[in-house]
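Notes from the 1:1 (GR / supervisor)

We went over the backlog. Supervisor wanted to see one worked example end to end before approving the batch request, so GR pasted a single chain during the call. The sequence is below; no edits were made to it. Supervisor asked that the structure be written out right there so they could see what the output format looks like.
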Amino acid sequence: MNAETVGKFSAGHRGPVLDAGHPGYDEARKLYNGMIDKHPLMIAQCSDVGDVMDAVNFARDNKLAVAIRGGGHNGPGFGSVDDGLVIDMSMMKGVRVDPVAKTVRVGPGCTTGDVDHATHAFGMAVPFGIISTTGVAGLTLSGGHGYLSRQYGLAVDSLMEADVVLADGSFVTASETQNADLLWALRGGGGNFGVVTSFLFRIHPAKEVYGGPIVFDLSDAATVMRWYREFQASAPRDFCIWLGLQSVPMGEPFPAEHQGKRMCILLVAHNGGGAKEAVDAIRRDLPTPLFDWAGPMPYPALQSMFDALYPKGLQWYWKGDFVKSLPDAAIDAHIEQAKKSPTGECLMHLYPIDGAVHDKASGDSAWNCRDATWSMVIAAIAPDANRAPELKQWARNYWQTIHPYDLDGAYPNFMMDDEADGRLRATYGDNYPKLAAIKAKYDPDNLFQVNQNVRPSH
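Structure output shown during the call:
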C-alpha cells in the first residue's frame, strides 16, 4: 500500500491512525490475552461513527483484512489482525441513561464497569457478565450472561436497538421495526454482520445485592457440587450462584493459611427480598467453608470484585461448553481434572443460564441454546508466556474428558480461534442457516470474518 493512499486516509480520519512507525503503536496493539501477539498494518482509532464508516470503506476498497475492537477483552484475539486494519472504537465510550424509558444508550468502546457506574446512580443495571473490565460490545454480541441472567435474561434479551455500519459503508439502525432480521442476528450472532456503533438496552432494578464468595476446600467439592446440582433445579430467579473449581489466590486480602489451596467456590448473588435469609439457609446445608465473604454490597462492587486478579496481558486459553445436567460421573471428572491444573490461576466455572433465559424460544434470537442449565468455561491462565503450551494441553485434556457429559455447543466467547467450523454450527443449531442468509444479505463478501465466523450462504 503506497504512502499517498495511507496519508489520505489518515488525514481524513479524526482519531489517530497508528502504524508500526508510530510511538503509540506497540501499546495500542497489545491484547487482553497476552498469549496472542498480532501486528496489524494500521490501527484506526475512531472518535465517531464517521471515522468508522471511513475505516470500513478503506479496508474494503484496499482489500485489507479487518478486525473490530470495542472494549478489547476478546479471548481469542479477534480484536486484532496481522497485516490488516484494526477499527478501534475504544475511544467511543458515551453512556446515557433514560430513567423514564428505563433504557441506556451505550457506546461501543464501553466496558461493563462504565455502564454499571452510570446505571447504578438510578438503581438499575443491564445483565452483563462478572468482570467489569469486559467490553460491552463483544460480550453482548455473543449473548452475554452473568449475575442477573436468571432474573432478567441474557444481555441480548435486553438489547432493543443497535446502530450498525455495514460492509458497504452505509449506516443502518436495527430494531424491532427497522432491519429486524439484523437485530435478530446481532442478538448472539457475534460481529459477523457489521460494526455496531451504539447499543440501546433495557435496564432493570439492581441496586444492592447480597453477594460474594463462599469458599470450600477441594476435598468438599463433590459434596458441594452435588448440593449445587439439586439447588439449581429449583432456585429462585433472583438468586444466582455460579460454581468454580480453582485455587485461593496468593496475597491480600485472602487468608494467609489458605492461599494457594485448591478450592471449590460458590459465588452467590441475591438481588431480591430476604436475601440474607436465603443465603443463610444455604449456609446451613453446606460443609464448613474455608472462608465466607458473602454480604450486602452495591451491585457494581460485586461486578468488579475480581478485576484485580485478571489484569490485561496474562496468558489465557479458553474452552467452553453448554451444560444441561451434572451427573455424579461428571462431578468426579471435574474434580479429577481440576486437581491437575498447572497454575494457581487456572479455573473451571459453571455459570447458570436457566431461569429467565429459558423464557424465550431458541428461534427468538441468534442465541440458540435456551434449554441449557449452565455455560461452562475452562480457563487456563498464567502470567508466564513460557507456560502457554502447558496451559493449552491442560485445558484441552480437561475439555475432552468432560465434553461427553455436555451439550455440543458453547458460548462463542469461550471458544478460541482453533475451534472447528462444526463447533460453531453446533452452537447455533437450527439458527445457523438463517444466520448465514442474513450474513449474505448484509456482508455478502465476508468482510467481517475476523471473528467466530458465520460464512454467507450464496
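Supervisor's comment: The CA atoms of residues 131 and 305 lie 8 Å apart.
Batch request approved.
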